[in-house]
Write a structure and sequence with these properties.
Helix content: 25-40%
Structural class: alpha/beta
Shape: globular
Distance between the termini: 55 Å
Largest sheet: 8 strands, parallel, barrel
Number of strands: 19
Strand content: 15-25%
Strand order of the largest sheet: 2-3-4-7-8-9-10-11
C-alpha cells in the first residue's frame, strides 16, 4: 500500500509562490535594491547569521530515552504527567545527553484489556509527560509476551477465539487468522484516529509480529517466522507472507500522517522475509536496526554489522530498488546491542579509524540515521566525545545561512524575505513544522508563517522566498526581525507545544527565536 505523496505546495503556499514571482527580486540577485516601483518589495538588506558547532537536542534526533527509565508511565498509571516528568528529571542517567524523543513499547493486552476500550489514558499520559520534558514520543505495539500472552485474553476467548499456538509455554498468535487480522486492523485504526498526525508523536514502529515485536523467534524454539507454522508448500508460505503484509498495511493505511518505521528484515537466506520488508518500504515506512553496534557481542565469529546488515540491505534493494533512499521520506532508527557498559567491558573504543564504537557511529551516519535508542543507560566518559559528534551530525541540523529582506515596509504593504537554509545533518525533518518570522518592537509585533515545507529539506541548501503583508494597524517604528521553527500544541491528547527547533546558529534566544536583523515600518 503506497502512502500518499505530498503535493509540491498547498493552495496557500502556491499563492505565496506566485507573489514571489511577481514581486521578489530575481533569484540569486541579492543586490537588487527594488528601486523600480513596479517590481514590488526588494531585498535591500542581507545578513549572514553566525553558525554554531554545538551539539543539538531536538525531537526526532539524537538519543531516545526508553520508557522514561521505567520511573513512571507503566500500567497502571500512578503519576500525573507533572509528577512523572519530575521523576524522570530526578533520575536521569549519568552523562546521558538530553533526549528529544521518548520510546515506549506496549503489548496489545496492556493497551486494550477489554475489547473496544483502549487505554488512551496510558498513552495520553505518556505523551503529555514527554511534552513537558520537551520530547516527542514513539511507540510499538507488540503481540507476543514472554511467559504469557501479548494479545488480549478476550481475543483468544469466545466469541472471538482467534487461533494461537502454545510454544514453549508462550502464546504465539496465528497471524493468518481472519479474526486476529480484523481485530488488529480495528485496534490500529482506533490508535491512528486519536494519535495520527499528532505533533507530539514522532513515529510509530510497525512491530505486531514476533518476540518483542522484533520480527524474530528469538524467544521460542522455532527457527524463523515461517517454520513456526510448518508450511507444507510454497502456497502455504505465501499465505503467511500475505498475512504479515496485511498487518503492515494496517499501519500504512491508518497512520498516513505519521512517520513509520519497521525492522530491517530479510536477506539472501530469507527471501520471504525480504518480501515483507520490501513491502513495508515500498509503502512508505522507514527502517530500524536492532543490535546496532554489534561487532562480536554474541561471539567472535559473527556480528550484525558484517553478517546481517549489508546482506539485508542488498536483498531489500534488489526487491525494492528505492530502498536505499527511504531515509529521504521516513526515519532510520537504531537500537544499541546490549548497553554502553557492556561495550566498555568488551574493550570497544571510540578511536578512529578502527575502534568498534567509532565504526558504529560512522555506519549510523552513512545510513542517514536520525535516532538511537541507547536504552536510557549512563554514558561512559570515553564515549562522550563521539556521542557529542553524533549530536552535531545525526538526523537533521538546520542552520539559517543567510537572509535577505526589504529594508522598509509600510503598514498594510508588502515586504519580502529570501532565506537560505542549510541542513547540515544527514536526514530531513520528517514532521512539518512552521517556519515563522516575527516583527518584534516596543510598539507592537506581528508573526508571519513562511511557505517553507521543512520535510523537503534534505541535507544541503534550500532557498525559500516569501512575501508578507504588514498589518495595517502596525505602528511605525524599527522592529527586530526574528525567526523560529515551531511546533503546535497537541489536541486529543492536549499537550503543550514542543519548544522551537534548536538551530545551528549562535544567539538563538531561550524562547527559540533567533534575532536576525531589523526592519523599519514607516
Amino acid at each position: 500500500m503506497q502512502r500518499a505523496i505530498r503535493p509540491p505546495c498547498s493552495l496557500y503556499q502556491c499563492a505565496l509562490l506566485g507573489l514571489v514571482v511577481l514581486f521578489a527580486c530575481t533569484p540569486g540577485d541579492d543586490d537588487d535594491t527594488g528601486d523600480d516601483d513596479d517590481a514590488g518589495p526588494g531585498l535591500e538588506v542581507t545578513v549572514d547569521p553566525a553558525a554554531s558547532s554545538e551539539p543539538l537536542v531536538n525531537p526526532g534526533i539524537g538519543f531516545a530515552d526508553f520508557h522514561f527509565g521505567w520511573w513512571c508511565n507503566l500500567p497502571p498509571i500512578t503519576f500525573t504527567p507533572e509528577e512523572c516528568a519530575d521523576r524522570v528529571r530526578a533520575n536521569w542517567p549519568e552523562n546521558h545527553p538530553d533526549s528529544g524523543t521518548a520510546y515506549f513499547r506496549w503489548t496489545w493486552a496492556e493497551i486494550e484489556p477489554v475489547r473496544g476500550v483502549i487505554d488512551f489514558d496510558l498513552i495520553d499520559n505518556t505523551m503529555q509527560t514527554a511534552a513537558l520534558l520537551g520530547q516527542s514520543v514513539s511507540f510499538r505495539i507488540i503481540t507476543v509476551q514472554e511467559g504469557g500472552r501479548g494479545m488480549p485474553d478476550w481475543l483468544a476467548e469466545a466469541p472471538y477465539s482467534a487461533a494461537e499456538l502454545d510454544i514453549d509455554g508462550l502464546k504465539w498468535p496465528d497471524y493468518r487468522d481472519e479474526t486476529f487480522q480484523a481485530e488488529h486492523q480495528r485496534m490500529v485504526a482506533a490508535l491512528a484516529a486519536r494519535y495520527g498526525g499528532h505533533p507530539s508523536l514522532d513515529h510509530v514502529d510497525i512491530g505486531p509480529v514476533g518476540c518483542w515485536g522484533e520480527w524474530n523467534t528469538a524467544c521460542i524454539s522455532a527457527t524463523d517466522l515461517f517454520s513456526v507454522y510448518s508450511p507444507e508448500d510454497a502456497a502455504a508460505e505465501q499465505a503467511i507472507v500475505e498475512s504479515y503484509e496485511s498487518l503492515v498495511d494496517h499501519y500504512l493505511d491508518a497512520f498516513s500522517e505519521t512517520p513509520l518505521v519497521m525492522l530491517l528484515i530479510g536477506g539472501p537466506a530469507a527471501p520471504l522475509e525480504t518480501q515483507v520488508g520490501a513491502h513495508a518500504a515500498a509503502g512508505g515506512a522507514g527502517w530500524r536496526a536492532d543490535c546496532w553496534g554489534d561487532w562480536g557481542y554474541w561471539g567472535p565469529n559473527w556480528n550484525h554489522h558484517e553478517d546481517i546488515y549489508p546482506q539485508s540491505i542488498e536483498a531489500l534493494t534488489a526487491a525494492y530498488a528505492d530502498f536505499p533512499s527511504t531515509w529521504e521520506r521516513a526515519p532510520v532508527v537504531l537500537e544499541t546491542c546490549g548497553t554502553w557498559s557492556t561495550w566498555v567491558d568488551l574493550g570497544w573504543t571510540a578511536e578512529a579509524p578502527d575502534g568498534e564504537v567509532y565504526r558504529s557511529f560512522e555506519w549510523a551516519l552513512e545510513q542517514h540515521s536520525s535516532l538511537i535508542n541507547s536504552k536510557y543507560q549512563p554514558f561512559p566518559e570515553s564515549y562522550l566525545e563521539i556521542s557529542d559528534d553524533y549530536l552535531t551530525r545525526g538526523g537533521y541540523r538546520i542552520r539559517l545561512g543567510s537572509l535577505s529582506h526589504s529594508e522598509t515596509a509600510a503598514p498594510g504593504g508588502p515586504f519580502a524575505i529570501r532565506a537560505t537554509w542549510s541542513n547540515d545533518g544527514v536526514a530531513p525533518m520528517y514532521h512539518s513544522r512552521d517556519v515563522r518570522y516575527r516583527l518584534n518592537g516596543q510598539v507592537g509585533s506581528q508573526t508571519f508563517v513562511s511557505s517553507a515545507d521543512t520535510r523537503e529539506w534534505l541535507p544541503g541548501e534550500h532557498t525559500v522566498d516569501d512575501v508578507f503583508t504588514v498589518d495595517a494597524g502596525l505602528q511605525a517604528g524599527v522592529y527586530s526581525l526574528e525567526v523560529a521553527i515551531v511546533s503546535e500544541a497537541g489536541v486529543d491528547p492536549l499537550t503543550v507545544a514542543l519548544s522551537p527547533v534548536r538551530l545551528a546558529n549562535e544567539e538563538q534566544q531561550a524562547d527559540g527565536w533567533l534575532p536576525v536583523s531589523e526592519l523599519t515600518v514607516e
